[in-house]
């Protein structure tokens, strides 16, 4: 099994592309969902966040107030790094658990939906393939204004707050161009899925696990023979 990191930008159509992969039967892990899960009350990251930032980052029900926490770390790199040091290891643990479940179920590859894949770069080294859902800036702007009922100035501000899609496209191994008709984009997704399914890059891990299991079985057999009279 191998990992495929998928990202995009605001109003690029990433969520729609993910839905197509899921309809094709692909395994998808949403890193944003995991990030929210690891900071739930009772989890180690929740306790450490409260210890580091105080109870003012909590809602009345004990959940993390994401807006309050965001305001605290805004323009404060040291505090942002502290938060990342608390949450990122927990996120990686959950990712490994989810990916291992899919490995046991026989999936050849797993898609990780990672909005900041190229911005943080923390998870890039684990990805065998990287995919960007791209659209040209004008299309992105029009879609965002229509979707969020924004004026042009506000929409441009939101787009400018992210790494440009053109830059992400240059960094990615695969680009799904969602600038035009949806049928064209969907066909690109289907073709990419077929390419990834044909890939033999899943074999090294699977063979490695089988070899390790065979070694354990052999060791148990030898120990049993030695212990028997």
UniProtKB/TrEMBL annotation:
Keywords: ATP-binding, Kinase, Membrane, Nucleotide-binding, Transferase, Transmembrane, Transmembrane helix. CDD domains: DPCK (cd02022). GO terms for biological process: coenzyme A biosynthetic process. Pfam families: CoaE. InterPro entries: Depp_CoAkinase, P-loop_NTPase. The chain crosses the membrane at residues 203-223. One of its GO terms (molecular function) is dephospho-CoA kinase activity. One of its GO terms (cellular component) is cytoplasm. The keyword Kinase applies. Coiled coil: none annotated. Belongs to the CoaE family. This is Dephospho-CoA kinase domain-containing protein. It comes from Carlito syrichta. The gene is DCAKD.
